[in-house]
Amino acid sequence: MPVITFIRPDNRSENIEADIGESAMQAATRHGVDKIVAECGGNAMCATCHVYVDENWIGRLAAMGDEEDALLDGVAAERQPSSRLSCQIKIEQDLDGLVLRLPERQV
Amino acid sequence: MVTAGSAGIGGERAAAACGSVLSGIPGLDIDPFANEFFENPYLAQQALREAGPVVHLDKWNVYAVARYAEVHAVLNDPLTFCSGRGVGLSDFAKEKPWRPPSLILEADPPAHTRTRAVLSRVLSPAVMKQIRDGFVAAAEVKIDELLAKGSVDAVADLAEAYPLSVFPDAVGLRQEGREHLLPYAGVVFNAFGPPNELRQTAIERSQPHQAYVQEQCQRDNLAPGGFGACIHARVDAGDITVAEAPMLVRSLLSAGIDTTVNGLGAAIYCLARFPEEWARLRNDPSLARNAFEEAVRFESPVQTFFRTTTKDVDIGGHGVGEGEKILMFLGAANRDPRRWTDPDRYDITRKTSGHVGFGSGIHMCVGQLVARLEGEAMLAALARKVATIEITGPVKRRYNNTLRGLESLPITLKPV
């Protein structure tokens, strides 16, 4: 099972086990990572599952689509080049060790 | 059983399963479009959930799903469970629709994908940032006004008045004629129901409301900068045609007001009934957004929608044929104990993500961000300015084939 590390704004980190095929958002909400709100439940509509992808990982994710790109313009925290929506990151075995940083706020 | 996200619902196995007409699907004598059901749906919803993963409602000769897993699965399989034949009981393949079908709600991919993208951008998170301050200020003005009166009707004076004070302006509607907005939406949501008196009467009286909406949706009648003008601007970009633009504005007027009215009404009704939750909200107004979201789960202002099967399907081990209407009980799914801990409790700190009060999948409410903004703004203003909300008169329910809400909720507000 791939392990994802979520790092909070205060630098505390949490390792969670994700299932192949689920999204990073689903893994986070399943394990109660409270900085992932996911108001729309994973339908790529609300921009409240925003994460900053660690620089060592950003190039290894599938490229974002136009819809995700547009949604990221509306995130509550600052959008950065490493910004992604965690509902659009699909977990595969090769993402074992993925590091995602949580923004200060989602709404 | 259907497991979330997997293929418990799928056509391949269906041909064999479909041998008998009902394949052991339990038939229930429940009418979810009757006044008794509207008054108290919870025992009936429990019976619908417990009877099986799919049931047959004999009164309207329609299949239905009421458990979370099946409702979620049907919502997320739009190729098998289509919307293009209407999302009410009426099958557009067999009956003429009462109005020209919606280009988004009553459409399937790929046509839906294009129109949906337009409305998604017009109502995006980035746009919400721009309108946020105005919506928050209007909520505070509204609460000050109500506190000055003291005793008010939470439906007319708050749940209706607040959206009407912000949304029509955000769309860019003219001042005159706005009194048609709520009646028009009432018709739209009654029309999804079966041919009962509610539906027939609503459609018979709909002509003046339809005429207003059709006129108001034209480009010249929409103020620059509003949602309506933004939709029409997409014609210039080549994304939609001149004929499509007013139809997409119509979607905002159909689904953008009465839904939030009932969402806000649900939230006020919850906070008035559950003083411990109201105390928690007052103590921490940052819970306002989730308190609204939980009210949408708890009351499910939009109770039901239909889909139509595009092929023989298997639902929870039962075969259902092609061309059958499937009624989805969103409200029952939102209180399914298989999915929710203590589902009949209104808990403003609940993790609400995944509730189907706004639907799910490609047709999930495109205006959900506007609804949340209104809900958050209003509940935060209440939490900061109001000490107590007391119900001071008879609570009267409003009957509608799709929408769950109140006709009247007399309350007295005391200031902090």
Largest inter-chain contact set: A-B, 20 and 27 residues
Low-confidence stretches of chain A: none
Largest sheet of chain B: 6 strands, mixed
- Give the C-alpha Rg of chain B: 21 Å
Order of helices and strands of chain A: EEHEHEE
Helical stretch count of chain B?
Answer: 17
- Structural class by helix and strand composition of chain A: alpha+beta
What value does the average pLDDT of chain A take?
A: 96
- Main-sheet strand order of chain B equals 1-2-3-9-6-4
Number of helices of chain A: 2
Evaluate the radius of gyration of chain A: 12 Å
Classify the oligomer.
Answer: heterodimer
Structure, described:
The complex is a heterodimer of chains A (107) and B (416). With 107 residues, chain A is of the alpha+beta class. Chain A contains 2 helices and 5 strands. Chain A has a 5-stranded mixed sheet. Chain A starts with a strand and ends in a 6-residue tail after the last strand. Chain B has 416 residues and is α+β, with helices and mostly antiparallel strands. Helix content of chain B is 46%, strand content 12%. Chain B contains 17 helices and 13 strands. Chain B has a 6-stranded mixed sheet with strand order 1-2-3-9-6-4, sandwiched between helices. In chain B, strands 5-13-10 form a 3-stranded antiparallel sheet. Chain B has a two-stranded antiparallel ribbon with strand order 7-8. In chain B, helix 13 packs across helix 15 (288-299). Chain B starts with 13 loop residues before the first helix and ends with a strand. Chains A and B meet through helix 2 of A and helix 5, helix 6 and helix 17 of B.
